[in-house]
Amino acid sequence: KVSILVAGPDWPTSVLCGILRLNIPQMLLGTFPVTFVSIIPQTLVGALLMLEGAENGIWGMISNGLMMAAGAVQGGATMYYARAVLKTVEQDGEALAVFRPEHAAVAELTAKEAAYMACRKECAKWRNLSGSLKGMLAGSAACMLMGGFIILLDFVGSSGSEKLVFRNFKITNDIGASFDIGGLDGNPLNLVMMPMGYGAVMLNVSGIVLNYLSQRSLGGLAQKMLDAGGPATVDVMPVENGAGGSIMIGSKHDTNLVNI
């Protein structure tokens, strides 16, 4: 349990603890070892890197050693809880898979979500998209690709010291220092160079905005199709032994089977 709380993915682990209504003080106590496994070593790594000459001196070696040790402990905890989970599934998988009354709400929600996703899939097919939606999706992809290619120029299009998009800046550098000695001349925004840097940033922001608008539009169309009752049909088919069920999603073009 401690390994899952310490080494498990942060957000899913925390949300699952809340869904299961686990005891909060116990969860905090079980998470406390992360202080020694990750927080203290990573804080020391950052502090040591700030020391003068840390990159090539003894402090740099100590910093790298701490980082490797923290990574080894974190990786070991991950492998340990993964082994424990697989062992539990192997031993008690059949018992855990038996359908229980509390699963009914989950099955109902899954059926509703599957119906919505079937409508969304139908709306998202290229032949069903409107001209404006096609334009937004194509524009989003083009902006992100162009922005990404411009950023790549810093790595493949320059000699290494001469940058076109982002200036060279390390955590040990001084923002207030001049450009000649690795600073940002007192302004953090100078990290992005004109004109290529701001062009790449604007292209990526434009791509994100266009993608967000297109996804919102698709969501609205899918909801309207669902409210109208077509083209998807959803049937929940429980298994005879009560161990679960399936959801049949059908439309005029294809059919999918979703297990629950």
Features:
62% helix; 260 residues; flat; mainly alpha
Write the layout of secondary structure elements.
Elements: H1 2-7, H2 10-19, H3 24-31, H4 34-49, H5 58-97, H6 103-124, H7 131-156, H8 196-227, E1 233-238, E2 245-250, E3 255-259
Antiparallel strand pairs: 1-2, 2-3
Helix pairs in contact: 4-5, 6-8, 7-8
Question: Summary?
Answer:
With 260 residues, this protein is mostly helical.
Structural commentary:
It is a single chain. The protein has 260 residues and is mainly alpha-helical. The chain has eight helices and three strands. Strands 1-2-3 form a three-stranded antiparallel sheet, with helices on one face.
Number of strands: 3
Distance between the termini: 26 Å
Structural category is: mainly alpha
Order of helices and strands: HHHHHHHHEEE
Which outline best applies?
Answer: flat
Beta-strand content bin = 5-15%
Lateral strand order in the biggest sheet: 1-2-3
Q: Which whole number gives the mean pLDDT?
A: 82
The radius of gyration computed from the alpha-carbon positions, rounded to a whole number of angstroms, is 26 Å
The percent range for helix content is 55-70%
Alpha plus pi helix count: 8
Low-confidence stretches: 232-260
- Characterize the biggest β-sheet: 3 strands, antiparallel
